[in-house]
Amino acid sequence: MADAPKAPEPAKPAAPAAAHAAHPPTVAPPSGPPDPPPPAGVEPPAFIASLERAVSGAVSQISFFVGDWTIIVPVSRLLDVARHLRDAPDAKFDYCSDLTASDWPPRTEGRFDVVYCLYSTTLRQRIRVKVKASETQPVPSVTGIWPAANWFEREVWDLFGVNFTGHPDRRRILMPEDWQGHPQRKDYPLEGPGELLMENPIDWLKLRQAREEADIE
To answer: Which pLDDT score is estimated for 196?
Structure first.
């Protein structure tokens, strides 16, 4: 009696390429948000056009994303733009509802995006104003235009180190006054400030304790 034929062996999965395993693909870190322009057929609001006519060099870029308008403004024109947006009859942005920042270290022309979210309580319209600033570049405070920006600017300075100038009370608002560095910068060490300015975190803790004991005495 003839032997039954053997069942074929299952195919072995192909081994991944050695080069791919040894050198996984790398992705360059982003250098900022895309800030897409308005699509064809979508016209910017009239108050943006009047701003460009009234303040020379006020707007370097207009962006439209998910129904929101953003204007990117040179730091040198920030206060002129802010005053116009507050006072112009077709703008009337009388309320700074938020002020925040984002950090893009790979970007050479200014690592920080400082973003002002404005609202008109009478015309019920919104606009975002964005400026790009380097680590040490002075950014004028808008607290004299929108008082609500006071604590927002303190928070952005505390966490990012954006160099606001002309602020009436620029001091930390979330971190302790003697904290080292600005913890929402992307190059801030995950282990905490001890690695940032002192080699040994214990040294930083000892220094802080010594200051507290000196205050008690």
So the answer is: 47
179 close to 172: Cβ distance less than 8 angstroms: yes
pLDDT at 13: 58
pLDDT at 91: 98
State how beta strands 112-119 and 126-133 pair. Answer: antiparallel
Instruction: Report how far residue 203's alpha carbon sits from residue 191's, in angstroms, rounded to the nearest whole number.
Output: 14
Dihedral of alpha carbons 70, 72, 73, 75, sign: positive
| Mean pLDDT for back-to-back runs of 10 residues, the chain (217 residues) | 59 55 68 91 96 96 96 98 98 98 92 98 98 96 98 98 97 92 89 57 69 72
Alpha carbons 113 and 35: distance in angstroms, whole number: 12
**How far apart are the C-alpha atoms of 43 and 49, rounded to whole Å?**
10
Alpha helices in the chain (DSSP H): 18-22, 46-54, 78-87, 149-160, 194-197, 201-216
What DSSP designation does 77 have? G
SS3 187: coil
Exposed, middle or buried, 85 (CB in 10 Å: 0-12/13-18/19+)? Answer: buried
Give the span between the Cα atoms of 104 and 110, in whole angstroms.
Answer: 8
Q: For the chain, which domains are there?
A: 33-188+196-208 (3.30.460.80)
Q: Which two tokens stand for residue 185?
A: 């910068």
